[in-house]
Design brief:
There is one protein chain. By secondary structure, this protein is an alpha/beta fold. Helix 3 links the parallel strand 4 (103-107) and strand 5. The protein contains six helices and eight strands; from the N terminus they run αβαβββαβαααβββ. Helices cover 33% and strands 19% of the residues. It is globular, with a radius of gyration of 18 Å. The longest helix has 34 residues, at 3-36.
C-alpha cells in the first residue's frame, strides 16, 4: 500500500473515532429535547444516514430524523425506519416554518457552503437553522487547529489558496492525492471554507460552544442551543 493510502486510511479512522466521541454529546442533547417533546422530529442539514449509524443512534418510536441534502448526495435504496430523505439546499430552508423542528443538526457542512465564494450563503444557512430549530447542534472543523483535516498535514490549510493549489497540482499532500492541473486543484481548495470561533460565534450568536479538543488544541467547533421549555 502506498504511503498516501496509508495516511488517508489513518486519517479516516481518526475522523470516525472523533465523530463517535462527538456523537455522545449530540445523543445527550437529543435526550434533553425528548424530555420536553416525547414525539420529535430532527432535521439533519447536509447529513447522511451513515453518520447516525456511526454514532450508534437509531431513532426510537416517535422520533423521526429528516435528512436534507443535495439530490446527488442522497442514497438510493431502502431507507431505515425512523428516517426520511429530502432533496434540498442548506442555504434555503424557507420551506420550513419557525420552530418546526425540535432539533436541527449539521455536521461538517457549513464550511462547504459558500456558493460562488459568497460568505452570505453561510449566513443564510445559519439564519435558517436558528429560525426553524427550537434547539440546534452545529459542528465544523476549527481553522485554528494546526492539522489540516483534509490532508493531515500541519499548517497546510493556513497557506493561501493559490499556494495550496500549486502544491496539490504537483504532488500528493499527506493523505490527499495530487490533483492534476492548477485550475482543478484550485477548485478543490476553494470548495472548502475553514471557519474559526469568531465567525461561528457571529453566525450562531444565541448558542454556546462545546468544543472538541485534541492534543490541547480545539479540533472542532460545536455550537449548541438548548431546547426551550414553552
Amino acid at each position: 500500500m502506498k504511503i498516501v493510502d496509508c495516511l488517508s486510511k489513518a486519517r479516516f479512522a481518526l475522523a470516525t473515532r472523533a465523530r463517535k466521541k462527538r456523537g455522545r454529546a449530540l445523543i445527550e442533547l437529543i435526550a434533553r429535547c425528548s424530555e420536553i417533546d416525547r414525539e420529535m422530529t430532527i432535521l439533519d442539514v447536509g447529513g447522511r444516514i451513515r453518520y447516525w449509524e456511526e454514532i450508534g443512534y437509531a431513532p426510537p418510536l416517535g422520533t423521526k430524523i429528516v435528512i436534507l441534502n443535495l439530490p446527488d448526495d442522497l442514497p438510493a435504496g431502502p431507507v431505515p425506519q425512523g428516517f426520511e430523505l429530502v432533496a434540498g439546499d442548506a442555504t434555503d430552508l424557507s420551506r420550513y416554518g419557525e420552530g418546526q423542528f425540535q432539533l436541527v443538526v449539521s455536521n461538517s457542512v457549513i464550511g462547504h457552503v459558500h456558493t460562488g465564494g459568497r460568505p452570505e450563503a453561510r449566513r443564510c444557512m445559519a439564519d435558517g437553522i436558528r429560525r426553524i430549530g427550537r434547539a440546534y447542534y452545529v459542528q465544523t472543523p476549527n481553522r485554528a487547529f494546526p492539522i489540516d483535516w483534509r490532508t493531515g498535514v500541519v499548517g497546510f490549510h493556513w497557506k493561501s489558496h493559490e499556494e495550496q493549489a500549486r502544491i496539490l497540482a504537483r504532488r500528493n499532500v499527506g493523505g490527499r492525492r495530487c490533483i492534476p492541473g492548477y485550475s482543478s486543484a484550485l477548485g478543490w481548495v476553494n470548495s472548502i471554507h475553514h471557519l474559526d470561533q469568531k465567525e461561528m460565534a457571529m453566525l450562531f450568536s444565541d448558542g454556546y460552544f462545546s468544543s472538541e479538543r485534541f492534543g490541547g488544541f480545539i479540533k472542532s467547533l460545536i455550537v449548541i442551543r438548548e431546547p426551550i421549555v414553552a
